[in-house]
Amino acid sequence: MFEKVNPCHPDKVADRIAGALVDLEYKKAENPRIAVEVLIGHGVCHIIAETSVKLDEADVTAVVHRIAGNLTVDYVEVPQDGHLADNQAGGVHCGDNGIFKGMPVTEEQKTLSQIARDIFSVYPYDGKYILDGDRLILCQSNVPSDALRKLYPDAEINPLGDWTGGTDVDTGATNRKLGSDMADSVTGGGLHGKDLSKADVSVNIYAFLKAQEIGEPVMLCCAIGDDTVNGRPYEKIVEIARNYIRSVGGFEQFAEWGLV
Asked: Which of 99, 163, 189, 234 could make a disulfide contact with 221, Cβ separation 3.0–4.6 Å?
C-alpha cells in the first residue's frame, strides 16, 4: 500500500519553495546553514527561515511567484541558533539527533511512482494517487475523469467527481508528504528545506541509498555533534548526499518527487 502525490500538490509546492531557498543559499556559500518552513494557501505564503546566510526578500518573493503564482509573501528570517552554529565549527558534525531508516523500494511503490509521473507528464496539476494491491485510486485535478478512465479503465478515478486543486483549494506545508517521498523509510525527520549538515537530509539520503544498494533495511541513529555515523565520517555522508542532490538538479528538483 503506497500513496504518491505530484509536484503540484500544495504540500509539494511548499517543499519545492523550501528547496529553492536552500538552492539560493548554496549559490551564496559553499556550506550554508538553513532550516526553512513554508505554509502556503489561499493567496498567502508564510515562510520562516533560520539561516546563516541572509537572503534578499526580493529573491524569496521571486521564488514563490515562479513556483506558486502571484501570492502575498510573508517572510521572516532569523539567524541560526548559536549552539547549532558552533556545532559546525572546526569540521562537519552531525546537525541533529535522530533515527533513520532506509528501505528498499518495492515493486508496488515503483509502479505507482511511474503512474504518477506518467499522469503528471500529461496533466501537470495537483494530484494524489494510491495503490493497494490491485486497487488503484487516482485523484487528478483539472482533467475530465473520462480521459483518465481511458488510460486506466480499472482504476477508481476522482471519487467525488471532477475537481480543481492547488493552493486555492487546500493548504500546503513543508515535509507533510514524507510518506510519498520516502515510502517505508519514513522515521522522524523531514527531508526538505534544510542544508546538508542536517542529518534529516544527509543521513536519510545515505540510509535510503544504502538500502537500495544492499537490498535490505538499514537502521541508523546519531546524536547532534557526532563526527561519525555507522562507522563512516559524517563529512563523507554529507558528500554522498551532496552528490545525490547534484545528480537530481538541486534541492528544488529533489523536492518535486523525493526519493521514490
From this structure: 99
- Rounded to 10 degrees, the C-alpha dihedral 101/106/111/117 comes to 20
Cell of 169: 483549494
Domain that holds residue 139: 2-7+107-168
Residue 232 CB partners (closer than 8 Å, separation 6+): none
Taking only the tens place, the pLDDT of each residue in 127-138 is 999 999 999 999
Residue 113, pLDDT above cutoff 80: yes
The answer to whether residue 142 sits within a structural domain is yes
Q: How many domains does the chain have?
A: 1
Rounded to whole angstroms, the Cα distance separating 180 from 89 reads 35
Indicate whether 178 belongs to any domain.
Answer: no
Average pLDDT of the chain, as a whole number: 95
* Distance between CA atoms of residues 125 and 114, nearest Å: 16
Nearest-angstrom CA–CA distance, 189 and 144: 37
Predicted structure pTM score: 0.96
* Cross-strand partners of 4: 129
Strands (E) located in the chain: 2-5, 34-41, 44-51, 72-79, 98-102, 127-132, 135-140, 156-157, 172-173, 218-222, 228-229, 232-233
DSSP 123-161: --S-EEEEEETTEEEEEESSS-HHHHHHH-TTSEE-TT-
Inside any domain, residue 119: yes
The amino acid occupying position 186 is V
Residue 121 lies in a domain: yes
> Are the CB atoms for 47 and 174 separated by under 8 Å?
no
